[in-house]
Amino acid sequence: MVKKLDDGMSLATVYNTLEAFCGAGLAYKIAGCGGNGSTRYDAGGDDHLHLRCRKTGHIVDAPHDLGKRILEHIPQELIDELQDRIGFTVNKVQLDLVGEFNKNPCGS
Ligand SMILES: [Zn+2]
To answer: What does CATH list as the number for 46-101?
Structure first.
Protein backbone atom coordinates (compact mmCIF):
# COMPACT_ATOMS: atom_id res chain seq x y z
CA MET A 1 0.00 0.00 0.00
CA VAL A 2 2.82 2.40 0.88
CA LYS A 3 4.63 1.62 -2.39
CA LYS A 4 1.57 2.87 -4.31
CA LEU A 5 1.75 6.17 -2.44
CA ASP A 6 5.54 6.57 -2.29
CA ASP A 7 7.61 4.19 -4.37
CA GLY A 8 10.83 5.55 -2.85
CA MET A 9 10.04 4.74 0.77
CA SER A 10 12.29 2.05 2.18
CA LEU A 11 11.01 -1.08 3.84
CA ALA A 12 13.06 -0.11 6.92
CA THR A 13 11.08 3.13 7.20
CA VAL A 14 7.82 1.18 7.00
CA TYR A 15 8.89 -1.24 9.75
CA ASN A 16 10.34 1.55 11.93
CA THR A 17 7.01 3.36 11.63
CA LEU A 18 5.09 0.21 12.53
CA GLU A 19 7.33 -0.29 15.57
CA ALA A 20 6.67 3.32 16.60
CA PHE A 21 2.92 2.69 16.24
CA CYS A 22 3.31 -0.38 18.49
CA GLY A 23 5.22 1.66 21.05
CA ALA A 24 2.43 4.22 21.09
CA GLY A 25 -0.26 1.53 21.44
CA LEU A 26 -1.71 2.22 17.99
CA ALA A 27 -0.78 -1.20 16.60
CA TYR A 28 0.53 -4.53 17.81
CA LYS A 29 2.38 -7.50 16.44
CA ILE A 30 0.24 -10.53 15.81
CA ALA A 31 1.53 -13.41 17.92
CA GLY A 32 2.75 -16.57 16.25
CA CYS A 33 3.54 -15.04 12.88
CA GLY A 34 6.85 -14.84 11.15
CA GLY A 35 7.32 -18.48 10.17
CA ASN A 36 8.36 -17.23 6.75
CA GLY A 37 10.47 -14.46 8.26
CA SER A 38 7.76 -11.84 8.03
CA THR A 39 6.15 -9.93 10.87
CA ARG A 40 2.49 -9.05 10.84
CA TYR A 41 0.94 -6.05 12.54
CA ASP A 42 -2.62 -5.15 13.34
CA ALA A 43 -4.30 -1.92 14.33
CA GLY A 44 -4.73 -1.64 18.08
CA GLY A 45 -8.48 -1.23 17.93
CA ASP A 46 -11.21 -3.29 19.49
CA ASP A 47 -10.72 -6.86 20.59
CA HIS A 48 -11.38 -9.06 17.62
CA LEU A 49 -10.73 -12.49 16.21
CA HIS A 50 -8.27 -13.52 13.56
CA LEU A 51 -8.73 -16.40 11.19
CA ARG A 52 -5.35 -17.89 10.40
CA CYS A 53 -4.78 -20.38 7.59
CA ARG A 54 -2.50 -23.12 8.82
CA LYS A 55 -1.32 -23.85 5.28
CA THR A 56 -0.49 -20.37 4.01
CA GLY A 57 -0.28 -18.28 7.18
CA HIS A 58 -2.83 -15.89 5.65
CA ILE A 59 -4.66 -13.92 8.37
CA VAL A 60 -7.93 -12.04 8.13
CA ASP A 61 -10.12 -10.41 10.74
CA ALA A 62 -13.28 -12.35 11.51
CA PRO A 63 -16.48 -10.43 10.80
CA HIS A 64 -16.70 -7.96 13.68
CA ASP A 65 -20.22 -8.95 14.78
CA LEU A 66 -19.38 -12.65 14.93
CA GLY A 67 -16.03 -12.05 16.61
CA LYS A 68 -17.68 -9.83 19.20
CA ARG A 69 -20.33 -12.47 19.92
CA ILE A 70 -17.69 -15.19 20.35
CA LEU A 71 -15.52 -13.03 22.62
CA GLU A 72 -18.58 -12.13 24.72
CA HIS A 73 -19.04 -15.84 25.41
CA ILE A 74 -15.67 -16.22 27.10
CA PRO A 75 -16.75 -16.42 30.74
CA GLN A 76 -15.41 -13.50 32.76
CA GLU A 77 -15.10 -15.80 35.79
CA LEU A 78 -12.58 -17.90 33.86
CA ILE A 79 -10.58 -14.80 32.97
CA ASP A 80 -10.74 -13.75 36.63
CA GLU A 81 -9.62 -17.22 37.78
CA LEU A 82 -6.75 -17.15 35.30
CA GLN A 83 -5.67 -13.75 36.57
CA ASP A 84 -5.82 -14.94 40.18
CA ARG A 85 -4.05 -18.26 39.58
CA ILE A 86 -1.28 -16.94 37.38
CA GLY A 87 -1.00 -13.45 38.85
CA PHE A 88 -1.52 -11.86 35.47
CA THR A 89 -3.68 -8.88 34.59
CA VAL A 90 -5.53 -9.29 31.30
CA ASN A 91 -5.65 -6.04 29.33
CA LYS A 92 -6.70 -7.37 25.97
CA VAL A 93 -8.13 -10.59 24.64
CA GLN A 94 -6.82 -11.85 21.32
CA LEU A 95 -8.07 -15.05 19.84
CA ASP A 96 -6.84 -16.73 16.69
CA LEU A 97 -8.89 -19.43 15.05
CA VAL A 98 -6.59 -21.67 13.04
CA GLY A 99 -7.82 -23.67 10.07
CA GLU A 100 -8.11 -23.51 6.33
CA PHE A 101 -9.99 -21.14 4.07
CA ASN A 102 -12.50 -22.90 1.82
CA LYS A 103 -13.17 -19.68 -0.08
CA ASN A 104 -10.92 -16.79 -1.03
CA PRO A 105 -10.93 -14.66 2.15
CA CYS A 106 -10.61 -11.51 0.04
CA GLY A 107 -13.87 -12.36 -1.74
CA SER A 108 -12.43 -12.15 -5.25
ZN1 LIG B 1 -6.94 -7.94 13.14
So the answer is: 3.30.1490.190
